[in-house]
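Why Nucleotidyltransferase? Reviewers of the renewal asked for a concrete example.
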Amino acid sequence: MDTPNNPQKKLALLVMAAGIGSRYGGIKQIDGFGPHGETIMDYSLFDAVRAGFTKIVFIVRDEILDTVKEKFLPKLQGKVEVEFVVQSLDKFVPAQYQNPERTKPWGTGHALLCAKDVISEPFVAINADDFYGKESFESIANFFAKDTFGEHAMVGYTLEKVLSEHGSVSRGCGERDAEGFLKNVIERVTIVKENGKIISKEKEGDRELSPDIPTSMNFWGFQPNIFPFAQSLFEDFLKNNGGNLKSEFYIPLIVTEMIRHGKGKVRVLSGSDNWFGVTYKEDKEEVSQKLKMQVAFGAYPEKLW
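Here is what the prediction returned.
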């Protein structure tokens, strides 16, 4: 973010847009939701540019690469540096773990790793299909504009505000220490609302969760030294999980192991109250209405670009 003290400070945005979206039933990353068919990603890109980000890196599947380029490159050219990276199933995956039957991407941690060769500055990783709100981008840009002493960051959202009315969701549930640093984050893959309670469905049985848990919606701020640690951890992950066609390497695993081994500290920043996302097709109409309200309130112009 540009600051008077360091006008050349660089900050990249890594947009993870390679997911398949099996529960949505379509390519939600490039689906239209805004008043003029804007994607959710359009709003994140708009927020990032006005918060002072200097580079955008798109992580995509090969089959949507051309579409994403056509859709977003004209909007961003001249404003920020832009890179496109394909998250292929063989990238950083040794031959013995490559299985022609695997169709599922290796997960958000692998998506992050795929950007290793195009990012050398501090960066923020987000999901393409989540709306995070202007305040979240400003908060994390301000964090990196200061001397952060090599710290990383997680924008945490209150758990009760990031659930779906239409079915279960997967969420990274965090815990922070007295100084505001993250102690751990656990990926709970089946969270539902039942009888006024928030329940995580687990092999060991149902676990009730506090509505106030700081929750990762995959809005992370990292120093570039995360890459070698992530690569080493992914190599270990493949040794244990490479034969499982549905195994995924998540960013929360990287963060938890980094904290556990004393390799980095992660500051928890407060997220906007306006997060919303798309998991199911039924979410689309609600998201479209919320975006129209954001425009009506003046948070965004009627036409973004």
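DSSP finds seven helices and 13 strands in the chain. This is the kind of structural detail the renewal will allow us to pursue systematically.
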